[in-house]
Amino acid sequence: MIEGSCLGMFMISACSFAALLEHPASPVRMVIGSPDLRRFLAGVAMGLTAILLIYSPLGQRSGAHMNPATTLTFFRLGKLEKWDAVFYVVSQFMGGVVGTLLAFAALGQSLVHKNVNFAITRPGMQGIAAAFVAEVVITFLLMTVILNVSNSRNHARFTGLAAGMMVMLFITFEAPLSGMSMNPARSFASDLVGMQWQSLWIYFTAPLIGMLSAAEAFIRTRGLHSVICAKLNHSGRARCIFRCGYMTQEAISVPTK
């Protein structure tokens, strides 16, 4: 439920900022004529949204995957039980749709306008092949950063900041190629509510390929034992349902009588 709620809030933010920055009647759109600057501001907004959700009490509890590709990658790495992975993925898809529906209810025709278009992710002018490759590359980079930072005991607390920074950079510089999805549930939610299905297969396949490839590269260089936990934020005292190396270390460190 938390995973669904987090992605739902992410979608509300994505739709709201898309309308604020791109709808012709928006005062922000009237003042800022540069599409590059508007895209940078969108990147900052969504990067901060991701950071706030990851470090929120909800994000601390669930691990703040908010992305089926992330969940399935950690399942591949042996950190999730099968049923936890199934329920995470189902919740993420449902939460994304509900969040987009709530944004539609609040924004109405502003979200329908062609400049906003339900914040749908779609290939850019370079075409489908470029969009597919770009999605593979950015998801590979994102998961590589997440695995290296989150599995460093000295730097794990910065994982959320690193992930948010990557989101900001990718929206700013990569979005013209693929729309910058990295998330099957995020793209599905916009497409379902907007009833548009152009190239959805890209956003179902490329993020999985990119993240699973990053995971494979990580374990081949550092070993499967180096993956400590599936949480992006392990700070605080929130319960951890994963096969967690941090909890194992804490148990070992407790003196016994």
Secondary structure blueprint with pairings:
Blueprint: H1 2-22, H2 27-31, H3 35-55, H4 57-62, H5 68-76, H6 82-107, H7 109-112, H8 128-150, H9 159-173, H10 175-178, H11 184-194, H12 200-222, H13 245-253
Helix pairs in contact: 1-3, 1-6, 3-9, 5-6, 5-12, 6-11, 8-9, 8-12, 11-12
Report the uncertain regions.
250-257
- Written as H for each helix and E for each strand, in order along the chain, the element string is HHHHHHHHHHHHH
Which outline best applies?
globular
Classify the beta-strand content into a percent band: under 5%
Domains, number: 1
Helix content: 55-70%
| Strand elements, count | 0
CATH architecture: Up-down Bundle
Radius of gyration: 18 Å
Oligomer: single chain
Describe this structure in words.
With 257 residues, the protein is mostly helical. It has a single domain (2-248), classed as Up-down Bundle (Glycerol uptake facilitator protein). Helix content is 69%, strand content 0%. The chain is built from 13 helices and no strands. The longest helix has 26 residues, at 82-107. The chain is globular. Residues 250-257 have low confidence and may be disordered.
